């Protein structure tokens, strides 16, 4: 039928068909009132649906996290954790679920152990270290320590900038199949005593995980260090000291 009121315009398409567009409605006022109630309820239903979908997705990600931890894949585990925690943080009714997930992440960090293994002999300024710095990454299990392969680490070592000022430089490394992290330091530019430090290299977008890693680092947990000792090259120069005592 024709609209009770409103503008009418026709759009001609190929063929004999004519489609008319108009504003306004031929529906009764009571119908509009009934439809308005349904429309008002729709956003709430959509929000509930989205919340349930977020929770379901977070549950699946938590299962992925559990499986990755069991396999020793901490990169995948904490990636799943970060995504799941972001989903649960957006659902007000999921505070207890989020707390449980965070507790599980903290417990996983408690089981990780990074230890120093071997440091090379002292180097001489301008000459590379004779062997690499090595560390081990393991997870504590009821059967004892188990090596963690593919663990992402950040290795920091002393160096100097272009102006000659002392700085720390970092490199990303991963443990091998035996849980060993091996780092070959570049030839040191000058003599000095420093340390090579290894820490986890997680992409911590989650504030809780950032705080956990920061506090553990401050307590000296989840990190290990080895001495970085560099002797001066001046002792290579042959020198004779003559002491003349005239008394």
Summarize the structure.
This protein has 247 residues and is an alpha+beta fold.
The end-to-end distance, rounded to whole angstroms, is 131 Å
Strand segment tally: 11
Q: Mean pLDDT score, rounded?
A: 80
CA-atom Rg in angstroms: 33 Å
- The SSE string, one letter per element, is EEHHHEEEEEEEEHE
The major pleated sheet works out as: 5 strands, mixed
Outline: elongated
Helix count, DSSP H or I runs of 4 or more residues: 4
Strand order of the main beta sheet, please? 4-11-10-7-8
Task: Write up what this structure looks like.
The protein is of the alpha+beta class and 247 residues long. It has helices spanning 29-71, 74-89, 95-110, 207-218; strands at 8-12, 18-22, 112-118, 123-124, 133-141, 144-147, 152-160, 166-174, 180-183, 192-200, 224-231. The strands form three sheets. Strands 4-11-10-7-8 form a five-stranded mixed sheet, with no helix packed on it. The longest helix is centred in the first third of the chain and has 43 residues, at 29-71. It starts with 7 loop residues before the first strand and ends in a 16-residue tail after the last strand.
């Amino acid at each position: 039928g024709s609209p009770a009121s409103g503008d009418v315009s026709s759009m001609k398409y190929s063929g004999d068909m004519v489609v008319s567009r108009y504003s306004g409605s031929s529906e009764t006022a009571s119908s509009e009132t009934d439809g308005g109630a349904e429309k008002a309820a729709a956003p709430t239903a959509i929000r509930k649906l989205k919340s349930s979908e977020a929770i379901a997705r977070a549950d699946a990600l938590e299962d992925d996290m559990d499986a990755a931890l069991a396999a020793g894949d901490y990169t995948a585990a904490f990636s799943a954790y970060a995504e799941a925690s972001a989903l649960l943080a957006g659902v007000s009714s999921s505070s207890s679920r989020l707390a449980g997930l965070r507790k599980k992440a903290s417990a996983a960090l408690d089981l990780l152990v990074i230890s120093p293994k071997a440091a090379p002999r002292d180097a001489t300024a301008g000459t590379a270290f004779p062997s690499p710095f090595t560390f081990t990454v393991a997870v504590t299990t009821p059967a004892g320590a188990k090596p963690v392969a593919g663990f992402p680490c950040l290795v920091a070592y002393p160096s100097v900038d272009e102006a000659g000022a002392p700085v720390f430089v970092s490199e990303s490394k991963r443990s091998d199949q035996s849980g060993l992290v091996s780092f070959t330091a570049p030839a040191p530019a000058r003599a000095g005593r420093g340390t090579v430090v290894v820490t986890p290299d997680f992409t911590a977008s989650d504030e809780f995980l950032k705080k956990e890693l920061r506090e553990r680092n401050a307590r000296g947990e989840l990190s290990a260090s080895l001495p970085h000792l560099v002797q001066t090259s001046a002792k290579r120069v042959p020198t004779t000291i003559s002491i003349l005592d005239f008394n």
